[in-house]
From TrEMBL:
The lineage of its organism: Eukaryota, Viridiplantae, Streptophyta, Embryophyta, Tracheophyta. Pfam families: DUF223. CDD domains: RPA1_DBD_A_like. Residues 7-106 form the Replication protein A 70 kDa DNA-binding subunit B/D first OB fold domain. This is Replication protein A 70 kDa DNA-binding subunit B/D first OB fold domain-containing protein.
Amino acid sequence: MGRIPDKIKSIDGSKETLKLTVRITDLWFIGTPNKSEQAKMVFVDSEGDQIHAVCKSDQLKSWKANFKENSTYVMHNFKVVKNDGQFRVCEHVYKLFFIGVTVIREADLHELPFKEFRFVEFGNVVAGNFVADLLVDIIGVVDQVLFRHVS
């Protein structure tokens, strides 16, 4: 029997031998194709939790053809690092990097949710209750969030 998948909310930087069952809800490429290009993704698990993942150019050649937005996967072995850049695409305090031992297998996992929008009351924006360093997808365009409620 296979190992039970880890949950995104349990990722705390203590282990890199993660097994995740995820849907790629957002996928974009940065850089020059076939040169210094990298893939950035947002994964969602069965509980709707999200985490940012990055596949740098040295690993991208192996996996680029496998990445499809809205497809579901079983993935193993990532490097886990603090999500402390100037801007973040997910609230999770960690993000994942693909490394040489990362394994990806497309799987038919219909129970995994699709992208979920989290709208907030306009009053929260006026009151300044938002995360200033969090980027979100607004109708297909990445932009700085001004409408993200701070819990």
